[in-house]
From TrEMBL:
Originating species: Glycine max (Soybean)
InterPro entries (alphabetical): RNaseH-like_sf (IPR012337), RNaseH_domain (IPR002156), RNaseH_sf (IPR036397)
Domain RNase H type-1 residues, every copy: 8-82
Protein name: RNase H type-1 domain-containing protein
Superkingdom to which the source organism belongs: Eukaryota
Length: 90
């Protein structure tokens, strides 16, 4: 898979106090699609979105993706990653 053109990384997290979930899809031009899921892990609402993104980034590094675009439904996470919002330490 080395040297492929643009890839898309789709990440989504779902928060639940009893156990959160995350789904990750990494695909290239619909000819290659890799999917990964995380189930029932403890985290906060925003952390679940970050966990999904981190797993997606690890997956893209594993397959040596060079060019990537990411889609996420969390405005907070997207804005922090793009540098539009600052992350706060709590």
């Amino acid at each position: 898979m080395k040297g492929c053109d643009w890839w898309m990384l789709y990440v989504d997290g779902a928060y639940n106090p009893k156990g959160s979930r995350a789904g990750i899809t990494l695909e290239r031009s619909r000819d290659i699609s890799l999917k990964q899921s995380l189930f029932d892990f403890k985290t906060s609402y925003n952390q679940v979105e970050y966990e999904a993104l981190i797993v997606g980034i690890k997956l893209e590094k594993e397959v040596e993706v060079k060019k990537i675009r990411c889609r996420n439904d969390s405005k907070l996470i997207t804005s922090q990653v793009n540098g539009d919002f600052q992350a706060k330490d709590t």
